[in-house]
From TrEMBL:
NCBIfam families per UniProt: conju_CD1110
Entry-linked InterPro entries: P-loop_NTPase, T4SS_component
Entry protein name: TraG P-loop domain-containing protein
Pfam families to which the protein is assigned, alphabetical: AAA_10
Domain of life, source organism: Bacteria
Species the sequence originates in: Faecalitalea cylindroides ATCC 27803
């Protein structure tokens, strides 16, 4: 036997002890507040790691992931035991409903929507896989005391973190309570919300931590066990093929079963591995020589060695070459699965499904018999950090072990979030909560008919119903009037000759992001002038404009009367410079001329919680100016809400229009930054991705955004988005030439392909659709005129 293997077995050897209580089945002696467990001379610590999109990665990306994962496996030395665990647990529907379903507001305008929205969620919830995967890596080391163990785990965490970062994942250190909750939730299914362990209180009262996590009933039988009211069974991988399919573990763990899978392994030093390989080679050569001698003695001089011996020799030669030339390490590993069911019949059926799935690729998954061995397999599989099945190990090289990659697909299921569809890969619901992001800025991108407006309306309605936040919409096409009327929002129609007016000179305390409100307002006025005159403003004109803006706002501070663009123009005419009169002439068209709709005092209710600025009737030449003035109004509202501790959700459709000139682009980029700083959640919607990506100013919007919803894109736009957001060609297929309502979500660093599932007969669909056939249905129901 290999020297390191003997040493590991001696260190792991436990005295035979009959469990006299359920608590005795938990193989942990002491727990520490930082999440470290002590088991005699062993210390263990568990880390959770985030999933990555292995299933939808390109072949090159998969090869890179496997290479990085192989480097991670090779980084562990022979002094530690490593356990990689995949925990498949069923979603607790009761808790899920509490976290996701909307509460009634006792307002008939919202309650009908809330009822239908909740029914949609429940229906989709019942049709999804109902499984959440959590993935852990547990390290067990042999140290003299806890201080030495802490020091070791501290160094190891930094090293492992860098490996997981290169994989595109993240390593998260589990606290004591987070680690204990894994065992509590497994041992006590259905009681997940009742875990509440306090180590100080437990020590003060002389209680054991085991009392808080152990099952209430545990009985081991021949080939299965009973845990509370559940049935469970432990299985192990008794035979593996020579070549493993990289998809095997992904497919096995994607089954809709409540189970836990673990790989336990430790490495063998290369010199000992080579010695073992040489000994095996010597044995094979001896057998071949013995066979040849017997054949010669029988005068059979042409006999060839048996195929089995030749094949065995070739395998050992390949192993020796891998160990010396291909950076492979020899590892001793064992793999176990524990699954739970409600009845014995269901347990047997699930076991048969698991075995059939394994058998399909020549893997034998065998039941562990004898009650005591079921206990050993159970505590080995659960991430305590022990391995009581170390005599059932098999020899594997790093490459073979790396094919059992734990990565599959990313999920987004945030508490308190909004439903955005179903995960195309796992079929689980996608629930996004923008509060979880570093910044909540959102871009919704897609060609006409891809489902942009529908999805945004759905988000707006869910936000209306789930919070008291303010919602402001810039609506260039009048698409949001239906939901405004339905939910009691204020529609402000802006067009030449209209009765609704917005003062472009409105300003609130704290306007802008430079610290000088008047300077920032001057930048806005410059963008207005350039949007109308389609030209640039000289440096001299900028200086004069700054001066005049300060003068009119000083008068405002004295009189309390908000200035208008007319006041600003009159002040320009009072200046001695000729450039001032040039500026006044440039402003004449939208102060005294036919485009003076923003030169009046504001006369509409801008205090409503839900406001939509409808500029559908606005002249095409004034669209950019209209969007700028509305954005400026939104900034004022955001500042006011921020001072009052209230959040604002901002939706700007067809926002690419503001990038028609440099000044308006600069102004909008400034607004985008301000929104994030002032507790606002901005969402920009556009179909013109190509136009945006050609402009450096607009590309900065992408850099300052963390939430992307990419619906159907034209081929060129899709390729440009992939370059900008580092999306692979395989992932691009989810938003290139796809059906309406399908696409790819980028939520922070998480990428999830999705499809929107809503009943076509429901009010949720009819009220939000912009298809001509659905508009007729809206007229029949009196939703639109």
């Amino acid at each position: 036997m290999i020297k390191s293997q003997l040493k590991m077995q001696r260190q792991n050897k436990e005295k035979i002890k009959i469990s006299r209580s359920i608590q005795d089945t938990i193989p942990v002696d002491t727990v520490y507040s930082d999440g470290i467990f002590r088991m005699k001379n062993r210390f263990s610590k568990t880390y959770r790691f985030l999933d990555i999109n292995f299933s939808i990665a390109s072949d090159d990306s998969k090869e890179f992931i496997l290479k990085m994962y192989k480097e991670l496996l090779n980084s562990f030395d022979s002094s530690v035991m490593v356990k990689i665990t995949i925990n498949n647990r069923k979603i607790d529907f009761a808790k899920f409903k509490e976290d996701i379903l909307l509460k009634k507001k006792e307002d008939p305008r919202f309650d009908a929507f809330i009822e239908e929205y909740n029914q949609m969620l429940i229906k989709n919830m019942e049709n999804c896989s109902n499984i959440i995967q959590e993935k852990y890596i547990t390290i067990t080391c042999f140290k003299k005391d806890i201080e030495e163990a802490r020091s070791y785990f501290g160094r190891l965490y930094n090293e492992m973190s860098s490996h997981f970062k290169r994989l595109g994942s993240q390593l998260i250190e589990l606290s004591l309570n987070e680690r204990l909750k894994i065992f509590h939730d497994f041992y006590r299914p259905g009681e997940e919300d009742f875990f509440n362990f306090d180590i100080k209180s437990s020590a003060r009262h002389g209680h054991s931590f085991k009392d808080d996590i152990c099952p209430k009933h545990l009985k081991f039988n021949n080939g299965y066990f009973n845990i509370n009211e559940k049935y469970g069974r432990a299985l192990y991988f008794s035979k593996l093929p020579q070549y493993l399919d990289v998809e095997f573990l992904l497919n096995l763990c994607s089954l809709n079963k409540n189970m836990m899978f673990s790989i336990d392994f430790y490495t063998i030093p290369t010199d000992e591995a080579m010695l073992e390989a040489n000994n095996k080679m010597l044995g094979v050569d001896t057998n071949i020589a013995t066979f040849s001698q017997k054949q010669i003695a029988n005068n059979n001089f042409a006999a060839n060695p048996p195929y089995e011996l030749v094949t065995r020799k070739k395998e050992i030669e390949e192993m020796m070459n891998d160990l010396t030339s291909r950076d492979e390490r020899m590892m001793l590993a064992n793999m176990t699965v524990v699954h739970l069911a409600d009845t014995k019949k269901e347990l047997d059926a699930d076991t048969a499904i698991l075995k059939d799935s394994a058998r399909a690729i020549l893997v034998d998954l065998s039941t562990i018999f004898l009650p005591s061995r079921q206990l050993d397999a159970l505590v080995t599989t659960i991430p305590f950090g022990v391995n009581r099945l170390q005599y059932m190990v098999r020899t594997m090289l790093t490459e073979a072990l790396a094919t059992l990659t734990p990565f599959r697909a990313q999920e987004i299921m945030d508490k308190g979030g909004i439903y955005y569809g179903q995960n195309t890969i796992t079929n689980n619901m996608i629930i996004c909560n923008k509060e979880k992001l570093k910044n909540p800025n959102t871009l919704v991108l897609g060609v006409p008919g891809s489902g942009k407006s529908f999805l945004v309306k759905h988000e707006i309605e869910a936000t209306m119903a789930s919070s008291d936040d303010d919602i402001i919409i810039c609506d260039p096409e009048g698409e949001y009037d239906v939901i405004m009327d339905h939910f009691g929002g204020e529609v402000i129609e802006i067009y030449a000759g209209g009765k609704d007016h917005i003062n472009a000179m409105d300003i609130t305390l704290g306007y802008g992001d430079s610290g000088d409100s008047y300077k920032d307002k001057a930048q806005f006025i410059l963008s207005l002038i350039e949007s109308v005159n389609r030209g640039t403003v000289s440096l001299e004109e900028r200086s004069i404009l700054d001066r005049c803006i300060s003068i009119v706002y000083q008068k405002y501070e004295e009189t309390g009367v908000m200035p208008t663009l007319v006041d600003l123009r009159e002040e320009l005419l009072n200046q001695p410079e000729s450039q001032a009169r040039t500026l006044a002439l440039k402003m004449e068209l939208f102060t005294l001329g036919s485009m003076n709709l923003f030169a009046h005092h504001t006369n509409v209710n801008t205090k409503n919680r839900i406001i939509s600025f409808n500029i559908q009737k606005l002249d095409k030449n004034l669209k950019t100016m209209g969007l700028l003035v509305i954005t400026d109004q939104i900034i004022n509202r955001v500042n006011e809400n921020w001072k009052n501790g209230k959040r604002t959700h901002v939706y700007i459709d067809e926002f690419h229009v503001v990038y028609s000139n440099p000044e308006s682009a600069t102004f909008f980029n400034s607004a985008w930054r301000q929104f994030r700083k002032r507790n606002a959640y901005p969402t920009a919607i556009t179909q013109n991705v190509e136009y945006l990506l050609q402009d450096e100013e607009s590309r900065s919007i992408f850099a300052n955004t963390q939430f992307f919803i990419m619906l159907n894109q034209a081929a060129n736009d899709a390729e440009e988005l992939c370059k900008l957001l580092e999306i692979s060609p395989e992932q691009m297929q989810y938003f290139k030439d796809v059906e309406s309502g399908r696409g790819l979500i980028k939520f922070g660093s998480t990428l999830v392909p999705f499809r929107m599932l809503i009943d076509l007969e429901s009010m949720l669909y009819i009220i939000n659709s912009t298809k001509p056939s659905d508009l007729e249905e809206q007229r029949k129901r009196g939703l639109i005129k």
